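[Meeting: bench + compute handoff]

Bench side (C.D.) handed over the final construct sequence. Compute side (W.E.) agreed to return the predicted structure before the next meeting so the bench team could plan truncations. Sequence as handed over:
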Amino acid sequence: MFRTLIPILLIVIAWSSYWFWSAQDNLENIYKNLESSGNSATIINYGTVSQVGFPNRFDVTINDISIDGPTGKQIINLPFIQIMRLTYNSRHQIIILPNSLSIYNFNFNWKNAKVSIVKETVEDRIILEAENLIIKGGNGFSFHAEKLQISLLHKKLSDFKPQIILDLSGIKDEKKQTKSELHIEANLNLEDSPKLHLTNFVNSIVQPNTWTKIDQKNHQPGESFFIGNQEFLFSRPAYSLFK
């Protein structure tokens, strides 16, 4: 009986050692990404960092995280984020977002918000999904949609610029009447780096002369609005959904 337990104990000890060694490496990479803002236009502030997930996951929680622009103005503020991945797959991460956060002067409330980050040989993908989205800002700005999906795509083996795809469904006006879905595809002009990286994207929207343009045949933009210095161009019918 004891002899049969020895191989099991050895496997448990080996896997436990591997997990704790890999967990330390994973945590160091998280800290490295957080501290890398010192060489960029943005500054990342954060509170406590903890990690759990034994035996087959790494679940990292970062509390009180905020990103400030080069002038010190706060870009985004979150009470926490959770970064999760499987022990044996470093190319796919899931980020759990809180039910409320602020971006510039806009307050976001949503449910089941999460970000999927996939790094592959051919393409990198960052996909944000959320339900029951409510955005409120200055001058009485209010926007409500039942479902949201934002996709950032970067094809590595081509000359195409990173692409952003926005899908909204169940859009409601002030009278709570559901409107049609909204689908927008655009190319991003990221001046900082050709790589699709969350830090690079945040840096890009606080830099001058960056833009997002709807890429549709025979499209004539009529209205626009800014998030930071990132300009979003819309046709008048699409823009009316955000008024």
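W.E. noted at the follow-up: The first helix runs from residue 2 to 35. C.D. will use this when planning the next construct.
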